[in-house]
Amino acid sequence: MKIMKFAAIDIGSNAIRLLFMNVFEEGGNTHFKKSSLIRVPIRLGTDTFIDKYISPIKGEKLIKSMKAFRHLMEVHEVVNYRACATSAMREAANGPEIIKRIEDESDIKIDIIDGKEEASIIFDNKIADTLEPDKDYLYVDVGGGSTEITLFSKGICTFSASFNVGTIKILKDCVPKGEFIRIKECLLDICPNCENIEIIGSGGNINRLVKLATPRKEKYISYKELKSIFYDLKQYSHEELMINYNMNPDRADVIIPAATIFLSVMEWAKAETIHVPKIGVSDGIVHQLYKEYKSNRLLIS
What we know:
The protein has a 6-stranded mixed sheet with strand order 8-7-6-9-11-10, with helices on both faces. 46% of the residues lie in helices and 25% in strands. Strand 1 (3-11) and strand 2 (16-26) form a beta hairpin. It contains 13 helices and 11 strands. Helix 2 (56-76) packs parallel to helix 4, helix 7 (179-190) runs parallel beside helix 12 (255-269) and helix 8 (204-212) crosses helix 12 (255-269). The protein folds into 2 domains: 3-114, ATPase, nucleotide binding domain (Nucleotidyltransferase, domain 5), CATH 3.30.420; 126-279, Nucleotidyltransferase, domain 5 (2-Layer Sandwich). It is an alpha/beta fold.
């Protein structure tokens, strides 16, 4: 059995991540098994969403991290990698300059992707294959600077959009005026004909919120449970959340903004449940890399 290793770098608004994934084929099936995940909470969004500029300090941290990521990828002997940057880098005036420095100093090429491509990458996780064919689902990915919403109706992707609302933007009070109304109007428009719609949630925050719900084998949370947890969390300060709920500092300050977004989406879509498979941009990147690898292999043969 041949085991291949791919790497995905996700440069987000709250943190940057390096995912290593083992991929192997057996019995006509392809298996994806997570090897390791490195997360560095640089939080580029606190610079970009206020000043539209990445500060020299955070720029240097990002460059040092990318150099480290390059060394790790060499040690892991990856078949291929892709590095993507989302809303924080998209909105930074000096984003292209920092990306050039990273390529020059670490030999890592970074693609700045828009919300539509971000949703497309997430779709490549083969989400549709796991859905019940007669149900409607909203895929909701909440990041630091944007929220991606995709509608799957009867197993087919029928709508996808990116909204300029994220946890750090709420935290720093820099969500564009009317953006929440835009989400509401959009959901009221696309969801009326959907019966018993359910949500597939993505992102570190919703995974953490599910863990705070009643422990169970299946990863899901109801609207009632999420609302109860939301009001419980709101009683505590940032420091108290870190101590009482064993949260890292960069999780404790964005968990409530994340719950706010998910609750709003659930209310406007009239959804009672969020399912939370552990998937995201990094997983989608690996699926794309493997698809390209297999296509090239077929062409060569």
